[in-house]
Amino acid sequence: RDDVSIEPPPSRTDRIAKYTHSFPAGTFNRPYAIAAREENAVALRYRAPDLGPGATFEKALRLEDATLSVRERFESPDSTAQRLVVRSSLAIGETARTPWRGPLLLPAGIRLEPRHSYALDPARPLALYDAPTHEFVAVAWGAGAIEEAHLDVEDRHAVMRLRYAPGTQTTCYEYVYLKGEAEARARLRRWASEGGRAGGVAERSTQSPQKRPGESPCGFKSHLPHS
Q1: Tens of pLDDT along 146-156?
Q2: What does residue 170 show for φ and ψ, rounded to 5 degrees?
Q3: What does the pLDDT look like over 97-139, one tens digit per residue?
């Protein structure tokens, strides 16, 4: 869910079910327009008049192998105080079991406990690894991109909450299967040292005089439009 750090008053026409309001609704179920498309990539834009004149969310997504890069930007009339906040659900492990036994949070090696909140280091990438299912998910971002990061654990998943610094920022997500915790730690170290390129993703570039490439921490070159 895309959201902002300074919450607007609740909408009088909000018809979202109450059970979805365990955290602020943000721009849940809003209509994003497709601004541009490439092979394995799309740029989206949404104008949010309820957040003020000119308030706009923009994101460009690119999928390559096991890595998804998401370039985010929020324009606001109150750009000095307002920040983009993104909540992402990370659900790995045997989520159908009761109670859910959460995966390991790496590099700390903490097993996630339902109904707990964990403060994350905004200067370091994070990963979750579940040994029974061998699932591994890693999330990385550029230096200085994140002002605050938390992981809020629910009964069947963890919600990563990132508050972005002003400007255009890129977050990289990777989902793979690994043999064990040692391999997961090694992959996270490589992910961190290569700025989100743990999968060895090759750079993509198709020249066009109308578009200029933008590089992300994931190692992609994209021609999707910039702000």
Answers
A1: 999 999 998 88
A2: -120, 135
A3: 878 889 999 999 999 998 999 999 999 999 999 999 999 999 9
Query: Is residue 55 helix, strand or coil?
Result: coil
Are the beta carbons of 220 and 204 closer than 8 angstroms?
yes
User: Around Cβ 199, how many Cβ atoms within 10 Å?
Assistant: 20
- Which among 118, 135, 120, 132 is positioned nearest to 184, based on CA atoms? 135
pLDDT at position 48 is: 87
Other CB atoms closer than 10 Å to residue 89's CB: what's the count? 11
**CA 92 – CA 29 distance, rounded (Å):** 23
Spatial separation of the C-alpha atoms in residues 164 and 2, rounded to whole Å: 11
Spatial distance between the Cα atoms of 180 and 177, rounded to a whole number of angstroms = 9
Percent of residues in the chain assigned helix, strand, coil, to nearest 5: 10, 40, 50
2-4 β-sheet, strand order? 2-4, 84-90, 158-164, 146-153, 117-120
Q: Which residues contact 20 (CB under 8 A, 6 or more apart)?
A: 28
41 vs 70: CA distance, rounded Å: 10
DSSP labels, 172-197: EEEEEE-SSHHHHHHHHHHHHHTTS-
Q: Against a cut of 0.70, is the pTM above it?
A: yes
